[in-house]
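Hey,

The postdoc asked me to send both predictions to you directly instead of through the lab channel. I've kept everything plain text so nothing gets mangled by the mail client. Protein one:
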Amino acid sequence: MYSVNTYSVCERKSSTFIKIGKKRFDVCTKSAVGFAQKAAMYYFCALYENDFCTCMEQVKNAVRLPAFVDMHVHLREPGFSYKETIYSGTRAAKRAGYSDLFTMPNLNPVPDSLEHLQVQLDIIGRDAAVRVHPYASITVGQKGKGELVDFELLAPHVAGFSDDGRGVQDEGLMREAMVRCREAGSIIVAHCEVDSLLHGGYIHDGVYAHTHHHKGICSESEWREIERDIRLVEETGCRFHVCHISTRESVELVRQAKRKGLPVTCETAPHYLLLCDEDLREDGRWKMNPPLRSRQDKEALIEGVKDGTIDVIATDHAPHAEEEKNKGLEKSAFGIVGLETAFPLLYTYLVKKNVISLERLVELMALRPREIMRLGEPKDFIMVDLEARYTIDSLQFLSKGKATPFDGWEVYGVVES
């Protein structure tokens, strides 16, 4: 582990030092020797690369960070290019500091065979501005039921397997999927949801739903399937990653699984850490699945981020056309965009408010995803101006999707090109 710190020497001069173990390397940051400072920092980064957890470089108001990795993105192509394309989505990601995206298989055709996967790979090869790693579906047609895909055949060509948007409902089918996935040396990335507990709901079954007469989605619809799947992991030994957890029960289930030493990891998303159902508006921009939960759930998620129970913050970037998101809470499509807001929101409202450290945020957004998905050491780095302040304006997004509940929020942190 190492650290980078800046301290004042006098009113017109500051110094930056790298600390590696008990050694401290000082570098002057006066503009006259900026090049030397930068060269020295790069030298030490290269020299001690294996010891560096974040390889962070502080230059004036900017920090050098490993590029971010998003384990949960919907790029909508092939099949739904009116919502987003690989061209637009990856350029939004690159602007926001991401080097690697893992894409969900709710596409047309669904990547449930090599032939269908190749359609997506061809577009990625032609249009992607960052590295894109597709997930294959767990079931044929991504139906959450029926026939399993050929795990052995697909595993060398995909990042893992997911039916995101649907939970695999049958326990026996999920057990068999885990056995085959383990044998193929891959990972299941699961959307956990019990269909029979949804009852037509579309927001959290909490204060806002009851007050405004909306149909609610209970927390049990999420945590009950996580509970089942963790039990199946214990039986099968399959590597298992839980998508977008949103309830306090889910946090505790994953915490207990980790204490048992099970190969279970999980993610949450920025909106679950910064918003709750008390913040809801009669607007499709506040509708996603899982829904925004209670204040108590949000607090439990933050605690899970702080204590290491939650491994990753992913965006669940889910763009839709404007006409699909302007129908209110009941009728709008599930999903919001997140690539271009994730880091500044989390830096502003978690790091600057001393909820977590910058190092922890880097771990959640860049380092731990790389470990889980076995990408190796970071090779791409970004410069972020931490003092640059601006107001989120969805009309300026490079993504084709504009639906975000964070429009108008003031944030800090701009990735420099």
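Protein two:
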Amino acid sequence: MHMPRFIQPISLILILLGISLTSLLAHEHGHEAGYTILKRQPIAHDFYGAAEMVLISGRVSGDVVVAGQRLSLDGPVTEDVIAAGEIVTINGDVGDDVRAAGRLVRVNGQVGDHMVAAGETVTLGPQSKISNWASLAGRRIEVFGKVGKVLKIAAEEVIIAGELMGEVNITAEEVKILADAVIHGPLRVQSPNPPEIATGARILSSVEHVPMPEVDFAPVLKVIALAGLVVIVGLILTGLVYFLMFPQFSIATARQIEQNPLITLGLGFVVLLLAPLVIVLLLSTGVGYLLGVVLAAAYLLMVIAGGMTGVIYVSDVALRRLFNKEAASKGVMVATLIGAFVLLGLVQIIPFIGSLVVLLLTVMGIGALKYQFWQQYDPQGRGECR
């Protein structure tokens, strides 16, 4: 059974969100963006940056929030670190918490409080020390350092070779406790296989192996099918209401996909990937929690509206190209919309391609909405709908 595999798509999403932040522009003192950010001198304030490569070797007296492809924090940070990217390396000491996500995440310094990390591979190096608790998720988790309190791990493969002072809870397919490991608290492993404990490893408390429970998927599949039916009906009704309330705007927006395919695709991906990262940062820092909740609700509505725009685009193209109707009545359009929903539902049967088609329509629909708003409310007077 491969339950921990759910970590992989989550980690991939976090990586994409981190990389997407590289398009942010600087907007105030201490915020930077570009291809490379190199900081060797001390920074006496919070630092926010996004670039393909971020290297900070000087002391930072405050928080660090960075994103990019390759991130390296070599100097000490007095407060929190939030880092998202492809390769994240934290060599310096951190005074408070660490929250990191990436394909490869490695911590070699000391963390003053707790740590939360997710990635394909997450490694706590031999010199690392997490003073409080740690929660790690990924395909492969390696712990060679010291964790002061509770350690929770969800992964496919786990390697323990460090000193763990508190309780250890692991959910994984394979767990290896190497000879250098010292575990002071109870060890609980939920896995289809018993943990491999090397000779010489010291576990000073109890060891509990809990086999993965067998799951009867029949009731789950029934619930999923019923929920799917409810969602499909709800989306059809939402699409019809959206079109009937804004017929001219919705059709003009949908036609932006045909008129400006590359622009709508690019804008759609930027909004789809960038907005969640902004939401996560607002919620995780606590400063803008309320704004993060509002933005999350607005983002959900934007995704739904983007999907509806994609369906309307399919309907509009079908009417114009197949039936030569440039301006159909509302009744005809409603019937075509329902047909488009059914068609896209059938396309979903095709593995991968069906999901890809729906994703691209949604992304381009989001981009078309953004572009249409720019066109319609352009202060230079270019906002006439096409």
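Summary for protein two, as requested: The chain has two domains: 3-210, 217-376.

Thanks,
C.
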